[in-house]
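User: quick one, sequence for these tokens?
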């Protein structure tokens, strides 16, 4: 016997899986000092210090909507929904959502920036050494010579 196929209703659709983190710094928490980790960490509170993860670790830092980091961030994969005051070095990927605020330079391998995100600093592309072969960029971060200046 043939059955009539029906469309699945939105009630039958599986719920999205919640993001999993190894550690969470809650909204009412404040960490003073450098934070070194591997894995996945979410900051919904405040970190006053540098946030560091080894490049080979594939670690991820998520700064939540109310999260703040006052220090440098050196993590392979960074997602900013809140605020970072300091340089970000995300060798693999940087994601800035519409409410993200960054006061500092940003070094990235790949970047995703939503309309409304703000960066008060320089965006600096860092080519991945594995995809570049032996060639490395030798372009200075800032030129000391003014355009149009006489020698």
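Assistant:
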């Amino acid at each position: 016997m043939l059955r009539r196929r029906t469309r699945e209703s939105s009630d039958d659709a599986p719920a999205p899986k919640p993001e999993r983190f190894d550690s969470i710094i809650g909204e009412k928490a404040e960490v003073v000092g450098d934070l070194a980790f591997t894995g996945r960490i979410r900051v919904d509170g405040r970190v006053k210090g540098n946030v560091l993860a080894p490049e080979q670790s594939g670690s991820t830092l998520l700064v939540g909507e109310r999260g703040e980091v006052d220090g440098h961030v050196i993590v392979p994969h960074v997602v900013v929904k809140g605020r970072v005051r300091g340089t970000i070095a995300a060798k693999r990927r940087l994601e800035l959502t519409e409410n993200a605020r960054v006061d500092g330079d940003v070094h990235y391998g790949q970047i995703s920036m939503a309309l409304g995100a703000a960066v008060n600093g320089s965006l600096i592309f860092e080519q991945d050494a594995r995809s570049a072969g032996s060639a490395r960029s030798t372009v200075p971060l800032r030129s000391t010579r003014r355009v149009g200046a006489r020698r």
